[in-house]
Write a structure and sequence with these properties.
The complex is a heterodimer of chains A (119) and B (115). By secondary structure, chain A is mainly β. Chain A is 0% helix and 52% strand. The mean pLDDT of chain A is 92. Chain B contains no helices and 13 strands. In chain B, strands 2, 4, 5, 6, 9, 12 and 13 form a 7-stranded mixed beta sheet that branches. A 4-stranded antiparallel beta sheet of chain B has the order 1-3-8-7, with no helix packed on it. Chain B is globular and about 45 Å long. Classes of the chains: A mainly beta (119), B mainly beta (115).
């Protein structure tokens, strides 16, 4: 069965600190996809990144970076020099690969990590 | 900037009433998902469609919930009759199957309160 674990329920940091949000997943599939979403206080879920299981290259986008390690089944998210606007709930999610027919492409979400960035 | 739209944004109703939530997916997206979010259960997938055909609605209470896509630009989720335990935020998401996965783009949600 597929599962995503975000062990950190809440994290509180002071502005300009770096913070890493952990994500550990379980799947028996050899091909799968991992995602991160941000849910700010306004409530909308915002897509941040998608990675496939064959691409372990780390990704950097501005202050955001992602570390994907298949050996530990982890897909961690780091925010460098955090800002108050980064305060949100962050969800990690897993999707099986599928093309047509029986493919489900459902997202299995973790329980989320609430990040509070204090000024 | 294409976005998924949902109406209404907020809905307060009384137990036993019918509730209809609407979603307009992003133009060109062929996959539509309905989720429910509560504090206790987190994000739950209720149903999803590809090319307007329902692929999976196993997460949906069949006796009171129904989901349809009358056309490619409209998805609906109905609850009849509504119950207080249905109070939640209902999200619609759309995406296009590319490279073996669907990147889902979420709407702003419908906040439902059943009294």
């Amino acid at each position: 069965a597929q599962k995503v674990t975000q062990a950190q329920t809440e994290i509180s940091v002071v502005e300009k600190e770096d913070v890493t949000l952990d994500c550990v997943y379980e799947t028996r599939d050899t091909t799968y996809y991992l995602f991160w979403y941000k849910q700010p206080p306004s409530g909308e879920l915002v897509f941040l990144i998608r990675r496939n299981s064959f691409d372990e290259q780390n990704e950097i986008s501005g202050r955001y970076s992602w570390n994907f390690q298949k050996s530990t089944s982890s897909f961690n998210f780091t925010i460098t020099a955090s800002q108050v606007v980064d305060s949100a709930v962050y969800f990690c999610a897993l999707s099986e690969a599928g093309y047509y027919g029986g493919a489900t492409n459902k997202l299995i979400f973790g329980t989320g990590t609430l990040l509070a960035v204090q000024p | 900037d294409a976005r998924v739209t949902q109406t209404p944004r907020d809905k307060v109703t009384e137990m036993g009433q019918e509730v209809t939530m609407r979603c307009q997916p992003i133009l060109g997206h062929n996959t539509v998902f309905w989720y429910r979010q509560t504090m206790m259960q987190g994000l739950e997938l209720l149903a999803y469609f590809r090319n307007r055909a329902p692929l999976d609605d196993s997460g949906m209470p069949k006796d009171r919930f129904s989901a349809e896509m009358p056309d490619a630009t409209l998805a609906t989720l109905k609850i009849q009759p509504s119950e207080p335990r249905d109070s939640a935020v209902y999200f619609c998401a759309s995406g296009q199957l590319t490279g073996g996965a669907v990147t889902q783009y979420f709407g702003p949600g419908t906040r439902l309160l059943v009294l």
